[in-house]
Specification:
The protein has 209 residues and is α+β, with helices and mostly antiparallel strands. It has one helix and nine strands. The strands form two sheets. Strands 1, 2, 3, 6 and 9 form a five-stranded mixed β-sheet that branches. The longest helix is centred in the first third of the chain and has 63 residues.
């Protein structure tokens, strides 16, 4: 009789333990399920956040493209400057620094007046230059920043290293011209070309070949 009671009590204890174990296992399973669900939801939010960041950074990169700095140099074949006065149109095509220590400025001049243009007003006021006749001997380069003025080079006889308009320029005619000047310091690249009563023409000096 005592043995039967003991076996019955042992069976009841095993049943209670089994029930507790099953409850614990169920609780763990439920908890694990909740954790996975939160993680899954959190992962979805994280993906959305990354997607938002990616879409916002893309326009930023694209936005910079139109803002790229453009070259200020004239397009190939375009003149550096053009100015009008004294009955002519003066075009400057190039201003190149040479290794010899001088700058050669060249371009074209068109007679837009009704008569012959001799270029006498461009030869300069210096007595030494008067023997050059109609020419561009009176031209100069002005460095306003460095406060310096560079005159056309000349030889020992006073003849300018520049174009002489011998015989003048007929109405509507276009002729080439050049003038050589002492080279400004290498850091000086922007100057103004001046001659006669023509308005100053800002130009940029480039390195020669």
């Amino acid at each position: 009789m005592i043995r039967d009671d003991w076996e019955k009590e042992a069976a009841e204890m095993n049943l209670r333990r089994t029930t507790k174990t099953r409850r614990a296992t169920a609780a763990v399973a439920i908890t694990t399920g909740l954790v996975l669900t939160v993680a899954s939801c959190g992962g979805g939010d994280g993906d959305d956040g990354k997607s938002d960041k990616g879409s916002s950074s893309a326009p930023s990169a694209t936005k910079g493209e139109p803002g790229e700095k453009q070259s200020e140099a004239p397009a190939e074949g375009q003149p550096l400057a053009e100015t009008r006065g004294d009955g002519v149109t003066l075009v400057i095509d190039s201003a190149k620094r040479d290794s010899g220590g001088f700058v050669t400025v060249a371009g074209k001049v068109t007679n837009s007046s009704d008569g012959l243009w001799s270029g006498g007003q461009w030869r300069g006021d210096e007595q030494e230059l008067r023997k050059n006749g109609g020419s561009i001997a009176g031209a100069s380069l002005v460095d306003s920043k460095g406060k310096k003025k560079y005159l056309v080079l000349r030889d020992t006889s006073g003849r300018c290293l520049c174009t002489k308009f011998e015989g003048g320029v007929e109405s509507g005619q276009t002729v080439d011209w050049f003038a050589q000047f002492p080279a400004p310091p290498e850091e000086t690249t922007k100057v103004s070309f001046q001659v006669g009563a023509m308005p100053p023409a800002p130009i940029e000096i480039s390195e020669g070949e």
